[in-house]
Automatic annotation (TrEMBL):
It comes from Actinopolyspora mzabensis. Residues 201-221 are annotated as: Disordered. Phosphoenolpyruvate binds at residues 139, 155, 158. Keywords: GTP-binding, Nucleotide-binding, Nucleotidyltransferase, Transferase. Belongs to the CofC family. It holds the Pfam family CofC. This is Phosphoenolpyruvate guanylyltransferase. Gene3D superfamilies: Spore Coat Polysaccharide Biosynthesis Protein SpsA, Chain A (3.90.550.10).
Amino acid sequence: MGVQLLVPIKPLHLAKTRLRTARTLPEEHPELVTALAMDTVLAAATAERVREVLVVTSDAVLTRRFRELGVEVLPDSPRAGLNAALRHGDHLLGARGTKVRVGALQADLPALRGTDLDGAIAEADSERSYCADRQGSGTTLLLAAGGDALRPGFGAGSATAHRESGAKALLGSWASLRCDVDTETDLRAAEALGLGSRTGELLRRNDPKPNRTGIGCSGTV
């Protein structure tokens, strides 16, 4: 049957405002956000237990980029935040008559492996479940039960909110699924796991080039 994953993404000028790294230029921030999201979506699509991945966004650039990859994009017509976008996407799937089992995946998992996502979905079985981030406070994945509504509660302390709403905590050690990227420290943690190609290429492009002359710089005493 498989899970239909909704991946909500803020407009590029509003996304990842805490993620500022010396490894990209300020004007490259939208490109970094796009790379994080693309690596996440493409990795999720490789999971055997995922039926389809759908992006939810109102950003015209993201819409075009994902459609070029063959990814379906749903409009974020409420434009009222992450949870409203997810509820809207859930509603659209239900209105189409194509809804099977819906999940929500954060768009900032550039080290994601499809096998980790498969493991989490398998542990969830048919129950409403969530996977906390590596700090244990946020949520990277939320799965509805069967054909039920998603009932997202993302935001500060979302792991607690989802647990208190009756969702089962998924306890497997899926490092790549738990490693969301909000800060430069998070980005380094994801890099240690192995970044997706787009994020990795962007960072490597700006890394200092090795000194090919063999002449180093030294100070004078």
